[in-house]
Amino acid sequence: MQTSRPEYLAHGARARLIPSISDTKKEERATSILLSTLMAVHEFRQVMLHSVGVRAGNRAKLDAWTEVVFVSEVSGKKKDPQERPDGLLILNTGKKTWRAIIEAKTDNNEVGERQLKVYIDKAKENDVDAVITITNQFAALPTHHPVKLPKTRTKAVDVFHWSWTYVITQAQLLLQSDGIKDEDQRFILKEVVEYFDAKGSGVVGFTSMNSEWPSLVQATHKNAPINKHSDEAINTVSSWHQEQRELCLKMWPLLGQQVELKLPRAHKKDPQNRLVDDCERLAKERQLTATLVIPNAASDLEVTADLMRRSLTCSMKLEAPKDKVSSKARVNWLLRQLPPVTSQDFYIRACRAGRAPDTHQPIEKLRQDPTLLDADNSSAPPISFEVFYHQDLAGNFQKVRKFIEELETAVPLFYEQAGQHLQAWVAPPPKVKKSATLIEEDEAKETGEENQV
Description:
2 domains, 6-stranded mixed sheet, 14 helices, 38% helix, Stress response protein
């Protein structure tokens, strides 16, 4: 750890875990506490820096300063000396040094385009490798920044974004998984999480949709067209993107596993392309969708908000077992996986090949009679199933806060009561061929088991 301020800094205070700063200065306190924690807790440092593509080995040394002023600014080379970054990270691996300007905001404060451009220019002028912003705004990936900038602006300097919720979630996962070897470091990180969880810290999650949400839902419900280029569409999709990330971050601590968004490669590389495509989809389909990837789950978890029907749907899809011949046997295979559910809003949909119709029924009704999923005009057995939770929110759908509350209740509820119990069908290993007599006996045995369920 460095004992003195770097010569290229005209001003800067070492980041402190317990800063002697007024309680009213939330941003300064939050920055100092976070940066000092990165210095103190090795595993936390490694996880956070890895998210921006930087490897911090055990021998690497990290130093952090707050309220920094570069010498170049004092000497008059910089046109805007009033813009002072909240912090500076310096990682020395022995072979090379990596540095990042830190700008943090709390509560509803955001980093604007002008301010971000100033920090990028500071980084270029002082050979700083990256700019990292930390606010309560969400992004799908640390490489996706809430502020849209031309690509030419970020050629020489990497720009990343962490939401405070992302930072805290990473810390919680380390604590839950016993990923910190040193007990003192574990204690420090636990105390820091407690601080950021407190209301006075200025850290808040995504709690409401955009202001245009109510009018957009009302108009869509009345079958009015959606202009994909309008501010209401763009702001709605931007809010949805933030909520998608919030859903993942809320699921992480519940499962003790990293839950990620499933995004096409083109959308991972270009957030603007993702925004344009999702606005077009909203205009065409009148829906907002998200796909959550849960480690070792039977399938991805699909979330759909339908503006026309003002409803929420959470679902997972499974291939039907091919070693079961009849529709009833295939339905019973799925029902045996599911425990009793607490609501009639849980359903199973049977999907059939070709033009044969799909059918769906509440799970609890199917326990009484699995044949309810049979199609009226087709004897074809289901080739796949969709287990889903469907909730009609009616007027609550268009409320900016209530919609988020209902959504963040529905997703964990569906996974807890249905999703976590599902197991994908796996083809059995091939067996030695039997005689015709033994085959008839096996078929008779299977028919008897179906009648008993």
